[in-house]
């Protein structure tokens, strides 16, 4: 009886794979004496191996279903990628820094419970999102650009392109527009119906972190220390507020003296918290390997930046990237794909938000 059930299950598996000849073979086997003989000998072994096979098949199916793909919108919304690219290019032509801000939005989305667009949700009465978390408040920007893109996409292909995917593509297009490298952006993420203020506060790295904290913050998300260094190369673009680097320019000794004194002019020891400085003082809005050159000459803006080159285990990697932008670009591209793969919602999980700021129907 149990054997018959197994054969029925196996038949339906074979049916899925359209191997009708194997079905008829199983039909013949199920009526044969040989089978009865083999049941008595191998019943246990067959049950166990079939169960293993069946569960492995289910696991594989789950992985296949959950997989993102670069062609996800090819037929669902063929103009999606060009709409995003056009809007990103337009935003950057109005303000070059916006490319940096869009890249950071994707990072801050992915590191907090995966790339699910949770960072875009506005607070409402009864719902607290991630925007007021310490690393985000008065800091992350680019929400209007995402709104513009979403509005354009909704008028072309309503309900199709997720906010999480918009962030992933906008980050990529920003890096390319600012002179950086390209990668194949995986797509098909869906949007969360939740957000986590506490995870945003605890899982995003702090500019006051030492190397060991940075390594563990990234290792918690599955990245090696080398991948953490490559991703940190993002600080070749964009700005930071005085409040994030004040202690470094007034109190630290592993900093180039002229560099520190020039920064002090616009970042007083008290006040001016929101005054900005370029994270890369050489060529601020170009995506290149200057960030690593800066670190080698003790011109990292944030305490956390200079930690990557401070007589520690990452010095040689920073040195290598400072000398070879091609290896930095290659490693950065790989790490960005990894980052974009952090716990995406797929299949019927989550939703595709109509407005990136609100859960549908709220
Ligand atoms: C390694 C740990 C990291 C720390 C501690 C860190 C911290 C910071 C801080 C404090 C700022 C300035 C924020 C402000 O003053 O408002 C900043 C800016 C920025 N970060 Fe990071 N970050 C890290 C890694 C990353 C990664 C992995 C990426 C991207 C993949 C990234 C992309 C950016 C960009 C592009 C900016 C400039 C944003 C703008 O100008 O609007 N950062 N980061």
TrEMBL record:
One of its GO terms (cellular component) is extracellular region. Substrate binds at residue 205. The keyword Cell cycle does not apply. The keyword Ubl conjugation does not apply. Heme b binds at residue 235. Ca(2+) 2 binds at residues 236, 280, 288. The record marks 104 as: Transition state stabilizer. Its EC number is 1.11.1.7. This is Peroxidase. It comes from Punica granatum (Pomegranate). The lineage of its organism: Eukaryota, Viridiplantae, Streptophyta, Embryophyta, Tracheophyta.
């Amino acid at each position: 009886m149990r054997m018959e059930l197994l054969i029925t299950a196996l038949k339906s598996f074979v049916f899925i794979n359209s191997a009708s000849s194997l079905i008829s073979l199983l039909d013949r086997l199920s009526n044969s004496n040989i089978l009865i003989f083999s049941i008595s000998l191998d019943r246990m072994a067959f049950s166990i191996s079939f169960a293993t096979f069946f569960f492995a098949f289910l696991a594989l199916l789950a992985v296949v279903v959950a997989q993102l793909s670069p062609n996800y919108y090819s037929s669902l919304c063929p103009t999606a990628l060009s709409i995003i690219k056009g809007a990103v290019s337009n935003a950057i032509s109005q303000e070059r820094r916006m490319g940096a801000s869009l890249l950071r939005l994707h990072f801050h989305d992915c590191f907090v419970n995966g790339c699910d667009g949770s960072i875009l949700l506005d607070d409402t009465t009864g719902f607290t999102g991630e925007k007021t978390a310490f690393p985000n408040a008065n800091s992350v920007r680019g929400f209007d650009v995402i709104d513009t893109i979403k509005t354009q996409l909704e008028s072309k292909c309503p309900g199709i392109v997720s906010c999480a995917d918009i962030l992933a593509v906008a980050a990529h297009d920003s890096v390319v527009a600012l002179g950086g490298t390209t990668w194949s952006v995986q797509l098909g993420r869906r949007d969360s119906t939740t957000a986590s203020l506490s995870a945003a506060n605890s899982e995003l790295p702090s500019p006051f972190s030492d190397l060991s904290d940075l390594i563990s913050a990234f290792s918690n998300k599955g990245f090696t220390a080398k991948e953490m260094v490559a991703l940190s190369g993002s600080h070749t673009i964009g700005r930071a507020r005085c409040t994030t680097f004040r202690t470094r320019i007034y109190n630290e000794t592993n900093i180039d003296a002229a560099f520190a004194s020039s920064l002090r002019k616009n970042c007083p020891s008290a006040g001016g918290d929101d005054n900005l400085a370029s994270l890369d003082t050489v060529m601020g809005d170009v995506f290149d390997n200057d960030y690593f050159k800066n670190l080698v000459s003790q011109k990292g803006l944030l305490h956390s930046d200079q930690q990557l080159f401070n007589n520690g285990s990452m010095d040689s990697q920073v040195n290598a990237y400072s000398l070879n932008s091609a290896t930095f670009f290659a490693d950065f591209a790989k790490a960005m794909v990894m980052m974009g793969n952090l716990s995406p919602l797929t299949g019927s999980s989550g939703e595709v938000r109509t407005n990136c700021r609100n859960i549908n129907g709220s």
